């Protein structure tokens, strides 16, 4: 006998229950990954491949590789976007949202709890928190080194990276990163815009191109209108949403690159102190899931639970709009040499932006003595050469900072 809701919706018998079961499965699988995926975006992609491709066969190897390529092309948190894309390919928009929620929620809860812990017990100046800041030095340095080898491997791109770092350090405004990224895209088109690889066929996505175009239009509308509304209307929550949305919309090259963008939004304004900023960044290395949940910590540290929810929604919204807006068009985008050239220039520039962040605020706020430098060097060796995961290095940094207090 048909369910009454099936009759009203026109669905075949059991179809709604089947869809609900599929959505529940998407959430359960992504939540398991959110609880166990340590090690950063590259490790996340390995976990995703093992779970979604090899174990469950939700998509084949080629489709997974194409999806990863698209998410590397887009700004935002690549691993989160891959998860959203897989959820979207299997369960539509609802599947994308549940895949994101399952993968991200454990990290959100842990980062908000850490922010409240720091405030409740006033441990911001304790040795183990200082050790987390020193761990951030090693982690960002390793990210600069690894990204430089991949994204700026030759003289031209290395020069673009260093030039970007110099501009960001010498011109410290809220628009400097945006200007550098735009200039790097133009340089990339001029230098590399005549070459491009073969395009990939479109990925199977159960959403229409009209909806996708609407998502892209909303992405750009929010990017340009939110600053205007912020200046006209005002309000702390709108300012918070604008700042974190812009950070999520302009991050190329991985989660670590969000560090300077967020620092410019929250530290100079006094929303979060430089000390608390780096303590949270260090703690973010020790939890599973995406590094972008650092925004949850910042929102909680400066604005309580409401601030945490606003910051989290704002920083992940661009990623959702972009993956939903570009997935149906990826085949055509992937064949454009000019777009590939622009991305080449942007990727080199983000290495420079992260290099600048390694000095200010990471190094300047964490390394104050020869003992601090020694601990940072030791943690870097553990991370870059002993290949310890980032969460283990963060934990070692906390212990090391505590021990330094006895010297």
From TrEMBL:
UniProt-annotated location(s): Cell membrane
Recorded topology in the membrane: Multi-pass membrane protein
Signal peptide per UniProt: none
Entry-linked InterPro entries: Chr_Tranpt_l_chain (IPR014047), Chromate_transpt (IPR003370)
Pfam families membership: Chromate_transp
TM helices/strands, residue ranges: 97-121, 127-148, 160-191, 211-232, 308-330, 342-359, 390-406
Keyword set, alphabetical order: Cell membrane, Membrane, Transmembrane, Transmembrane helix
Family to which this protein belongs: Belongs to the chromate ion transporter (CHR) (TC 2.A.51) family.
Protein name as annotated: Chromate efflux transporter
Organism of this sequence: Saccharibacillus alkalitolerans
Lineage: Bacteria, Bacillati, Bacillota, Bacilli, Bacillales
């Amino acid at each position: 006998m048909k369910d009454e809701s099936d009759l009203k919706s026109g669905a075949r018998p059991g179809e709604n229950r089947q869809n609900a079961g599929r959505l529940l499965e998407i959430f359960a699988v992504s939540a398991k990954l959110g609880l166990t995926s340590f090690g950063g975006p590259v490790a996340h992609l390995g976990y995703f491949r093992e779970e979604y491709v090899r174990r469950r066969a939700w998509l084949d190897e080629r489709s997974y590789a194409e999806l990863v390529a698209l998410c590397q092309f887009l700004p935002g948190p690549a691993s989160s976007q891959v998860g959203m894309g897989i959820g979207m390919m299997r369960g539509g928009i609802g599947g994308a949202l549940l895949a994101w929620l399952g993968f991200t929620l454990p990290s959100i809860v842990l980062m908000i709890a850490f922010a409240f812990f720091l405030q409740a017990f006033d441990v911001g100046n304790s040795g183990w928190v200082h050790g987390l800041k020193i761990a951030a030095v090693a982690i960002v340095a390793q990210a600069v080194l690894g990204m430089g080898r991949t994204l700026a491997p030759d003289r031209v791109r290395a020069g673009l990276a260093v030039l970007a770092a110099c501009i960001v350090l010498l011109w410290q405004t809220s628009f400097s990163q945006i200007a550098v990224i735009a200039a790097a895209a133009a340089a990339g088109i001029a230098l590399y815009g005549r070459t491009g690889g073969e395009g990939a066929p479109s990925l199977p996505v159960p959403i229409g191109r009209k909806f996708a175009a609407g998502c892209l239009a909303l992405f750009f509308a929010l990017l340009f209108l939110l600053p205007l509304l912020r200046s006209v209307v005002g309000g702390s929550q709108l300012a918070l949403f604008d700042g974190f949305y812009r950070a999520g919309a302009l991050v190329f090259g991985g989660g670590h690159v969000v560090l300077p963008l967020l620092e410019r939004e929250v530290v100079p304004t006094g929303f979060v102190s430089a000390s608390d900023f780096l303590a949270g960044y260090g703690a973010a290395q020790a939890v599973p899931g995406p590094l972008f949940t650092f925004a949850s910590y910042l929102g909680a540290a400066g604005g309580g639970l409401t601030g945490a929810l606003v910051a989290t929604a704002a920083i992940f919204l661009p990623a959702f709009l972009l993956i939903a807006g570009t997935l149906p068009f990826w085949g055509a985008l992937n064949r454009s040499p000019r777009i590939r050239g622009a991305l080449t220039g942007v990727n080199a520039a983000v290495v420079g932006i992260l290099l600048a962040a390694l000095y200010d605020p990471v190094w300047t706020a964490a390394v104050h003595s020869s003992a601090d430098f020694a601990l940072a060097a030791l943690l870097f060796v553990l991370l870059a050469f002993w290949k310890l995961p980032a969460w283990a290095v963060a934990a070692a940094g906390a212990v090391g900072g505590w021990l330094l207090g006895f010297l």
